[in-house]
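User: We ran a pulldown and think these components assemble together. Before we commit to crystallization trials, I'd like a predicted model of the whole complex to look at. Sequences follow.
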Amino acid sequence: MQALRIPPAGTPELAGRIRHKIDRKTKPLGALGMLEGLALRLGLIQGTDSPHIHAPHLLVFAGDHGVAAEGVSAYPQEVTWQMVMNYLAGGAAVNVFARPQGLSVDVVDAGVNHVFETHPRLLDRKIAMGTKNFAKEPAMTVAQCEAALAAGSRAVRSLSVLGSNLLAVGEMGIANTTSAAALMARFTGMAAEACIGRGTGVDDAGLVRKREVIRQALILHRGAATPIEALAALGGFEIAMMAGAMLGAAQERMIILVDGFIAGAALLAAQAIDPGVLAYCVFAHQSEEAGHVAMLKHFNAEPLLKLHLRLGEGSGAALALPLLRAACDFLNQMASFESAGVADQGAR
Amino acid sequence: MQALRIPPAGTPELAGRIRHKIDRKTKPLGALGMLEGLALRLGLIQGTDSPHIHAPHLLVFAGDHGVAAEGVSAYPQEVTWQMVMNYLAGGAAVNVFARPQGLSVDVVDAGVNHVFETHPRLLDRKIAMGTKNFAKEPAMTVAQCEAALAAGSRAVRSLSVLGSNLLAVGEMGIANTTSAAALMARFTGMAAEACIGRGTGVDDAGLVRKREVIRQALILHRGAATPIEALAALGGFEIAMMAGAMLGAAQERMIILVDGFIAGAALLAAQAIDPGVLAYCVFAHQSEEAGHVAMLKHFNAEPLLKLHLRLGEGSGAALALPLLRAACDFLNQMASFESAGVADQGAR
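Assistant: Here's a predicted model for the assembly, 696 residues in total across the polymer chains.
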């Protein structure tokens, strides 16, 4: 992967200008709560006090996981490709939530264990027919991991060239909360126990297996020293490609709308590669997955939605998009005390 | 006010049918979190397993408060009418948030201390030029309160006749958090202290005055025995009219999208008049106003958004509307395991 050059997001001067613009709107100081901080962030990312969202795009990265053989998921592996077909047919939650908002949804086959026919909404970036079982060996080679990162980055640059300034990221991959939890433990240094949850709803016996698999894998791969080596050892193709997409989006100064737990694990890897990526991120929601609260705290992030979702796909990102538009709209369209002839707090 | 006849929302049979439909969608059981409970509620309100939102309408009820003379707000009273002008000009937060969603916004002058020129978006339902100061006498007469309730109910029936099936309620009225806090203490039986917050941002001295005013008013008006007497003693014209609007909406089986703290106080009054209203309500957000968490708990409600808003106007309701649409859309448009050919959890 070539050297990254993520530009800083905004300047102190611009931050001051945006804050002043927010404070002159016809509302008490701070009354729009989190939308004010969101408007500030979007302005800083775009380098303007009039941010806007254009041609937002959601990429669903899909990949299969060798570790599924350990019985860590409630669903069989073929659900990965079956759900890809569901996304392409427009019948999944993410499609339904994205459609009324003009949010385009494409699926990226990063490494699904299935041969798909070509489809206009499917990007074939398959690295292999699923990863190896990281309970026994590295999930992928370092070369595969670098190829996945580069493919993710390139895919996003194509969107940027076509005028999109917002990338939403989602994923599909049976057993990928196991990979995500292992990556979280590795990249945050937290105890594995704090990173592990039930994913799509594994039962108690499955949860015990999941814990044991992750515990042993962290020991087995403790020699993976660099971020890319760790991502190769414990990751998934869709997670690595998603990390590359985030890095590419930040280089293009795009807004990155981060979905849930697994997208967050990809961001941990991206952050380890280049910490500058974080300034371009907006966190869509806090999921029900057990480790997500601690992960968001690690990012020092307050997510926009807390709807107890645990679906992935980018469904939470799609649901949060109207709030990003609202943040832009109030900054751009709301009247100021001066323009509306309303007395402000000082007038009392 | 004529005898109310709020029909029950849904049947156990329908609830079972909607739950089954939700559980066959292509997602793990319960994975859409709060959206699943929301879809169930919307279906029960409309008596169908395929709810939809048609011609949603937001009414901003505006009124002035005699108690403003006690120095309980950070803003002068003329901000009420100035903000009404801002809504009519389309420059306020609620306009900006409603516009992209096709949410119509009308202002109801329930009792603003200002003479407005006619405007197509302004409904003149003025009871008087503001309430009396309830620190010294009842805010309004029982006859005025009944007139306000009836006017609110009638306004909503007109919307229903025109095809709207969702009423969002918001408000504007300098000093109306003082009225709302007093009503909350009266209708919930909670200690006044637990109901009082800073409203639009009153300073420490103002907060002390606000507490003292409410404490004394609750003693002064302790003889107000019926819900309507209590609402007359401590309420505002916009709050009473909003309560009437909610009762009218429930009678028409419309979805009631409740904004923040003051709309919640109006709902407390409406609930005291007819508890059946609650089954028609969706709670848009949890505001920063100190008493709102306790109020939502009283309603046994989990609000959709927690964005630390404290603006009123219906701004939180407008921001929550996309989530109601998403709940309808997933119920109506998402594929089932059968239709998509996806293996479900039992297939493992």
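Chain A touches chain B through 60 residues (CB under 8 Å). That may be worth checking against your pulldown data before setting up trials.

User: Thanks, that helps.
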